[in-house]
Fold:
Amino acid sequence: MEYRPLGRTGLRVSVLSIGAMTFGDGGVFMKGATSSNDEARRVFDASIDAGVNLVDTADIYSNGGSEVLTGEWIRGKRDTVLLATKCRFPSGPGPNGGGATRHHIVRSCEASLKRLGTDVIDLYQIHMQDGATPIEETMRALDDLVTSGKVRYVGCSNYTGYRLTEALWASDKRNQVRFESVQLQWSLAMRDCEREMIPASRAFGLGVLVWSPLASGLLSGKYDRTTTPTGTRLAIWGDTWKRVATERNFVIIDTLRAIAAERGTTVAAVAIAWLLARPETTSIILGARTVEQLDGNLAALSVTLSPEDRKRLDDVSALDWGYPYSMIGRSQPW
Ligand SMILES: NC(=O)c1ccc[n+]([C@@H]2O[C@H](COP(=O)([O-])OP(=O)(O)OC[C@H]3O[C@@H](n4cnc5c(N)ncnc54)[C@H](OP(=O)(O)O)[C@@H]3O)[C@@H](O)[C@H]2O)c1
Structure:
């Protein structure tokens, strides 16, 4: 396992980490596309055996069930595993039950610490930007959590470029803790983050934690134009399947399949290896419902794509970057 620094911090995180979104009996939250608690614990154990040192969860995953399961599992190994969790989405009643407000952040952090059975969260992330709350309020609340020792580092997820910049500016002006990482959706099927968030992370020295590296399983090798397995997330989430079952994505899958065959590895491993090869990537948060899936994804560690492979994948997945990106891109990378 390789370990990369989380942005400008001295913290080293494994380049593959494990996500707990499908853990903790999320019948409602994941609409049934979950792991049993026993399988979740086996996935956690196998991840640690492979050198993973970061677990990502959130207060809303399985309505807190994911944090509870993670907390029970981590007992006795707390010193070897970094815990990342998130708040922002509604988790309480009334008009103040969600948001990136001081009220919600402080209350959510206390609740997560309790569910996780720990006295400190290694990386506390705002799950999505909140345009209705002044950024100074959000950053001050996070600064207080770090100062009081409840949180070690803070990060954000699902932010726009302008809001991230505003947050970094607010922290800098007041000499407060800043976001050290962004967590964003990135895969061959979903490259929109390359317009703003990836260049911003490069420019400001932020760690990049990648979510849904297989586009919810689409790039795992089990889907094509005519096959949709039953009982899987994309089979259960019909609306998502309709959105992702596009000719562009099937061409990406064809290309992944060809490269996987040439290299004697799996489609999932090639899809993850494409992300591993990006210098901006700090850690890819694997989603694995079973140990078998985890092993298929960990196989990415032994795949080194050639420049030609990467170009083939870049080309078939390229987006119309739009204005002003395409205009700037004719002269230099943006
Ligand atoms: N910040 C955010 O807003 C946000 C949002 C989403 C996720 N995340 C984080 O990112 C983590 C990973 O996200 P994700 O679960 O969407 O990742 P993903 O890798 O895109 O999808 C994982 C799903 O794909 C299928 N799969 C994975 N590996 C496979 C393999 N080798 N062979 C066949 N099928 C395979 C499994 O679903 P099936 O068995 O059902 O097909 C699995 O649950 C989450 O746990 C969470 O920590 C964050």
